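FAQ: What does the model actually see?

It sees only this:
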Amino acid sequence: MRSGVFFFNTASKEFARYNALPDETATNIYAIKKDSEKNIWMTSDYSIYELGSGENKLLKYDLPVGLMSASFEMLNIYPLKNGNWLSASKTEAVIFNPEKIRSVQKRNETVIITGFKIFDKEINVDSLLHNNKTIRLKSDQNFTVIEFATNSYAGIAKNIYYKLSGIDKDWVTANDKGAASYTNLSPGDYTFNIKAGENANSPLTTLHFVITPPFFATWWFKVLVILFTAIIIYFFIRRRIKNIRYKAELKHKVSETEMLALRSQMNPHFIFNCLSAIDNLVQTNQPDKATTYLSRFAKLIRSVLESTKHNVVPFYKDLEALQLYIELEQFRFGNKFHYTVHADEELLMGDYKVPPLLVQPFVENAIHHGLMNKLRGEKNLAINVSIQAETIQYIIKDNGVGRMKALEIQKQNKPEHNSYGIEISSQRIQLYNQNGKQNNIAIVDLICDDKPAGTEVTIKIKIDNS
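And it is asked to produce this:
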């Protein structure tokens, strides 16, 4: 036996089956009634159908899930005074308004959010949804299920589309369960939009929720970490600078002590030579020369003693002491050599300072070993001082016998004698300059016609800018 909806033709007295049913579930029709607009309404096992006036099309309205049963037989439809219709089976009663149900279902249908779950745990958000407020979740509450239904007659979630900002690029078609689930959501702001139908003008239902990041991912925590790191770096750098300054000061004090020790070694060496010269004049019965020499020596000693109180002295004072020393040596050797001393005007007039008696041993070496060992010809000593870049440059030039010949003569006359003046002054220069360079002192043997023609010593001392 064929089931479904059949039409009876009063003219031909024949039945014809209606074949435009939305699905095959409408196999049993229990009640039929026409509304005021001549639309025909029919009840079936699971749905109510409407056959529009003049239309060859049925509209289906699903019954609520709880009413679906195999024995749902609504055998009659009864109109009520308020315009609603009543239909009932043995166990259920359904009331609907035929004038409103169609417009609500197909034109103004909206979607209602009915539940919000975190890890399958129901969260009461009704008040927040009612006031359109934002739901705030913790960082570990990132597995969510949003439940929804329509405000239609049946309330079944069909023909519904939803989208979650930042997650869904396009609208997602809802399933029959009436729920949208999202797992492992990252911290951030989310907006869940849902609508009934594909119409762009369909009303949207919106849900806002925020998943807050863990404290270590928040901006204020990152700022605190940056500030804390900056403070640690600041104190580390400050302590490092303090240690460097302390080491520099300590190194400077050590250098000063070493220079003082070297200077204290040089001064007795120089004084001993001067006293030896005076003694030689006395022994050779030259009292007048001894008196003159002693007077000049006393002046030089006074200058030397005053210089020993300081690590550096004005350039012009040191140059005066050097000239006084050369005069003493010239007087001692009976004016057997000539000398010239020239210095830049800027050095003489400016506030330049140098370590005291730093070049004296080199001048002494030029006189004693270079010039005094020369037997023939003029004996000349020239000293030139100038500013070169960041240094004060001394050039001490003699036309003596040269270093090789002087060394031979020294080995013959004083084989056991060791001169420490040059070595001590070299160490003082290195300590004072503190540049680690080896070109602070340069010694050149002068050659003329393949024969030794003297020695030229170049000494560079850094300019003291303090």
